[in-house]
Design goal:
This protein is α+β, with helices and mostly antiparallel strands. The protein contains five helices and seven strands, in the order βαββαββββααα. The chain folds into two domains: 66 residues, Alpha-Beta Plaits, CATH 3.30.70; 54 residues, no CATH class. The N and C termini lie far apart (50 Å).
């Protein structure tokens, strides 16, 4: 049974930053440097519809967020090593989701250039995934 909580469930947060994008009062900051930091500032919260709660893909926020800074490692392309624009936890989350309906979920651990190269190797599989057809 899922434990009840109020605020931010740190272990459930994947560092995607969607909450910061929808917060109408800018009470959630995302800082991108060597690591991604998601910083929650409840003192800036005002009346709202808790958009941060409803957008969170892992339900890591419930009610008014607590004051906390969460730090995340960035994911890197497993082919060339390039730093990706999202966190390891975000990539793992997407990998699990894609794995349910797609044969190649490992694409979440690739940069755009390496994904493009992979499409050349398996064009019919990628076109099928995106609803296209091979002539």
């Amino acid at each position: 049974m899922e434990e009840e909580f109020e605020g931010v469930k740190a272990d459930a947060c994947i560092g995607c930053g969607l909450c910061a994008q929808v917060c109408p009062h800018n009470a959630i900051f995302v800082m991108d440097n060597d690591k991604r930091v998601v910083s929650f500032h409840p003192e800036l919260c005002k009346e709202c519809n808790y958009e941060c709660n409803s957008i969170c893909p892992t339900q890591a926020i419930k009610g008014k967020p607590t004051r906390i800074d969460l730090e995340f490692e960035y994911a890197h392309c497993q082919v060339c090593g390039k730093k990706l624009d999202y966190t390891v936890k975000t990539a793992e989350f997407l990998y699990r989701k894609l794995g349910k309906f797609y044969d190649y979920p490992e694409i979440v651990f690739m940069c755009d250039r390496c994904k493009h190269e992979r499409v050349k190797e398996f064009p019919s599989e990628y076109l099928k995934f995106f609803g296209g057809m091979l002539k």
